[in-house]
């Protein structure tokens, strides 16, 4: 059984009281809403016209021709290395955003009560 001196019973379970007190004075929950807005932008950009999904499909087509010797099926106006750089740059930016979200969420993990 958890020690009532070190835990707090909330609507979302028993939480570590010291961590809860700390977060109540320092944690900005509105940043979670900004993460939702960022997610909407990322998903929209990824699925939109000329978004990451389209870039990856074009990149596959180009790599398939160059690496596998497949017949040319699309335009040869783009450079394979430049498109690869564009895709990897966008992916790195998304990864950086996701890493920021992890940092944002990790403090909430400290609320876990250990037995």
UniProtKB/TrEMBL annotation:
Protein name (database record): Transposase
InterPro entries, A to Z: TnpC_reg-like
Domain of life: Bacteria
């Amino acid at each position: 059984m958890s020690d009532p001196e070190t835990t707090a019973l909330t609507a979302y379970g028993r939480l570590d009281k010291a961590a809860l007190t700390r977060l109540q004075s320092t944690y900005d929950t509105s940043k979670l809403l900004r993460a939702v807005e960022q997610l909407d932008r990322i998903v929209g950009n990824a699925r939109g016209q000329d978004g990451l999904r389209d870039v990856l499909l074009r990149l596959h087509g180009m790599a398939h021709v160059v690496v596998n010797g497949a017949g040319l099926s699309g335009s040869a106006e783009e450079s394979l290395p430049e498109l690869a750089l564009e895709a990897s740059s966008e992916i790195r930016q998304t990864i950086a955003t996701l890493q920021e979200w992890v940092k944002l969420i990790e403090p909430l993990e400290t609320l876990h009560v250990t037995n």
